[in-house]
Automatic annotation (TrEMBL):
Any one GO CC term of the record: cytosol
Pfam families for this protein: IBN_N, TPR_IPO11
Compartments it resides in: Cytoplasm; Nucleus
Broad class of the protein's primary localization: cytoplasm
Boundaries of every Importin N-terminal domain copy: 28-100
GO terms classed as biological process: protein import into nucleus
Assembly notes: Interacts with UBE2E3 and RPL12.
Name by which UniProt lists this protein: Importin-11
GO molecular function: small GTPase binding
Family listed: Belongs to the importin beta family.
Phosphoprotein is among the record's keywords: yes
């Protein structure tokens, strides 16, 4: 492809390919696809996307086609591979100028340079790293930023290579540039802090962006660039400096308004500092040993004392808790039962942990977790009132819940309680004893505290097996609390049924189950949807009817079968969200499976409702899976009478087992079992 004559034609076709008119767009895409294997095509694309006078959309499309071409045709062994001559020209052109004015295009160019580097650096492209190192020193802000952006993407890509020869090359690279990377990071960090002090927000924002990029480079070099990083003075010096820089940045957050653009970047940088520590601990636990004491002091100080008040934010708290958790449960830091079999490194790390986690420290962490972090927030209580079903879905494992503070605090509590249960059991039991009897419904804070303490007892159920007489507690207090009907007591009713669900498979006498079934039936009639659904989810799924529950006796449950099944069916009709309907169907399936043919007198309403629900769930394959599971148990429970369901079942089986239909991916296995 002749560059001079082809540039105009390619530019014209790229312009057509950005059209919204499919009649223009489709032929242009076909033409571009044909040119992908033409010699010189990528040189033309390079000339187009580096020409800043052209339309941004055209340049964007050109850089995307170039990037996709690298994946397909850059390697020597690829069909229609680019010639070595053209690749040499392209490599030189890519790093001639780091002056792309459009951020999105600059990022794509950095990524495609990194893709080329993955294949060619350093052997076929030895000048790449030296060019980048020189370019990040220039005074021009734009060129400096673009070079630093490229430096990060190249480092990230090279760090991800896993072959032994590639790892050796990256170790050599890291050793050669680490000192420079540290100096670069310190320079941009100091500049940012100075500009914050002088109130120059625009300049501080620019410097913070460079601080963030240089820190990203250092993260990759530190975590992946050394076999035994603890022997490298600069690496350990950088890691110790992370704590000081974190304190400085957290203090900076006091003076930067929440609505400031810089605030978001500042928080991202703070989180990146914590990721450096977490990644290093994950990859090099023994090299992290000199940092254990300081990490624990830092994290505990900001999360469990007044030091963090007014400056910490949720994601930072989550990261600090993850750091504590990883140190507490790290297998590299746990001695063998036979101490002589443990390495000196393990014993040293264990010694540091033991010295830190004294009784006062553990007691304060436990109390703070329970009485501060476990408390239902105003936002959660508002969501309970405004969207009870959505609240329940989130709390029982919704996507946003997985990444929020609450599950993180609960996991940390479980891990610390498991590791130090002899120390913490008396602390938790004392908190329980202080809450004996029903709580004043007018005291909202006391209700939230009791909810939090009961949560802790449920999470630590296995650890408390020998310390809590749960049967007596159930009879003397918990049962009575389930019967308090006041609207403000609903958090306790919900939490108590969850608590029983946690303990029923741990320690609960079979003789008490009829009493519990009576309480469950009353709760299913609760006008509050959250209490009803929580009752359903936590008790039935966690303890009452799972397949591995050998304590379940059908004769105990039969007196409550009709009313329970009716209430469950009413709940199934009442709820609207797909996830909730799946939970209810799961429980109905468990009930049908457990009582088998004795369900026959009560399933008429469900049999009539399922065809409607199947039709309504056309766009929800996971709900249809739950319906199929229910149908399987229904057929087994109805026996010969299931023939009456055939007009509905046969089309369901046909759709579920039709491999030409997209839903079969979800439905095939259950459809075949139903068949």
């Amino acid at each position: 492809m002749d560059l001079n004559s082809a540039s105009t034609i390619v530019l014209q076709v790229l312009t057509q390919a950005t059209s919204q008119d499919t009649a223009v767009l489709k032929p242009a895409e076909e033409q571009l696809k044909q040119w992908e294997t033409q010699p010189g095509f990528y040189s033309v694309l390079l000339n187009i996307f580096t020409n800043h006078t052209l339309d941004v959309n055209v340049r964007w499309l050109a850089v995307l086609y170039f990037k996709n071409g690298i994946d397909r045709y850059w390697r020597r062994v690829a069909p229609h591979a680019l010639s070595e001559e053209e690749k040499t020209t392209l490599r030189a052109g890519l790093i001639t100028n780091f002056n792309e004015p459009v951020n999105q295009i600059a990022t794509q160019i950095s990524v495609l340079i990194a893709k080329v580097a993955r294949v060619d650096c350093p052997r076929q492209w030895p000048e790449l790293i030296p060019t980048l190192l020189e370019s990040v020193k220039v005074q021009d802000d734009l060129r400096q930023h673009r070079a630093l952006l490229t430096f990060y993407h190249v480092t990230k890509t090279l760090a991800s290579k896993r072959l032994a020869a590639d790892r050796k090359l990256f170790y050599d690279l890291a050793s050669g540039i680490y000192s420079f990377a540290c100096s670069l990071w310190n320079h941009h960090t100091d500049t940012f802090l100075q500009q914050v002090c002088t109130g120059d927000e625009a300049a501080a924002t620019n410097s913070l962006e460079r601080t963030l990029l240089s820190l990203k480079v250092l993260r990759k070099l530190t975590v992946h660039g050394f076999v035994e990083p603890h022997w490298n003075v600069e690496v350990m010096g950088f890691l110790h400096a992370v704590f000081e820089r974190l304190k400085q940045f957290l203090e900076c957050s006091r003076s930067i308004r929440a609505e400031n653009v810089c605030r978001d970047r500042l928080e991202k940088t703070i989180i990146l500092f914590t990721k450096v520590l977490l990644d290093f601990l994950d990859q090099h636990p023994f090299s992290f040993t000199p940092l254990i004491q300081r990490s624990l002091e830092f994290a505990v100080s900001y999360v469990f004392t007044e030091a963090g008040e007014g400056i910490v934010f949720e994601r930072f708290i989550v990261q600090c808790m993850n750091l504590i958790k990883m140190i507490v449960k790290n297998y590299a830091y746990k001695p063998s039962k036979n101490i002589e079999d443990s390495s000196p490194e393990t014993l040293e790390a264990h010694k540091i942990k033991t010295a830190f986690f004294t009784y006062p420290t553990l007691m304060e962490i436990c109390r703070r977790l329970v009485t501060h972090y476990f408390l239902l927030t105003k936002e959660e209580l508002t969501m309970w009132e405004e969207d009870p079903e959505g609240f329940t879905v989130e709390e029982t494992g919704g996507d946003s819940w997985k990444y929020s503070l609450r599950p993180c605090t609960e996991v940390l509590f479980i891990d610390i309680f498991h590791e130090y249960n002899q120390t913490l059991t008396p602390v938790l039991l004392e908190m329980v004893h202080s809450l004996q009897g029903s709580t004043n419904v007018e005291d909202a804070n006391a209700i939230l505290i009791k909810d939090a303490v009961y949560n802790a007892v449920g999470l630590a159920a296995y650890e408390l097996f020998d310390s809590v007489d749960f049967d007596q507690w159930f009879k003397n207090q918990l049962l009575a609390e389930l019967q308090v009907s006041h609207n403000r007591y609903k958090p306790i009713r919900r939490r108590v049924i969850w608590l029983i669900g946690q303990w029923i498979s741990v320690k609960f006498k079979s003789d008490l189950r009829p009493v519990l079934y009576e309480a469950i039936r009353n709760l299913l009639q609760d006008q509050d949807l959250v209490v009803s659904i929580s009752n359903l989810y936590y008790f039935f799924l966690n303890g009452c009817l799972p397949v591995d529950d050998f304590e379940f006796r059908t004769d105990q449950f039969l007196p409550y079968l009709e009313s329970m099944f009716t209430l469950l069916f009413q709940l199934l009709q009442e709820v609207t969200q797909c996830d909730t309907k799946m939970h209810v169907l799961h429980v109905l399936s468990c009930v049908i499976e457990r009582v088998n043919t004795q369900i026959q007198p009560y399933v008429g309403c469900l049999v009539q409702y399922l065809p409607l629900l199947w039709k309504q769930s056309e766009e929800h394959n996971m709900l249809r899976c739950a319906i199929l599971t229910t149908l399987i148990h229904l057929v087994q429970g109805l026996g010969a009478d299931s023939k009456n369901l055939y007009p509905f079942l046969l089309p369901v089986i046909q759709l579920s087992t039709d491999v030409s239909q997209p839903p079969h991916v979800y439905l095939l296995e259950d459809g075949l079992e139903l068949w």
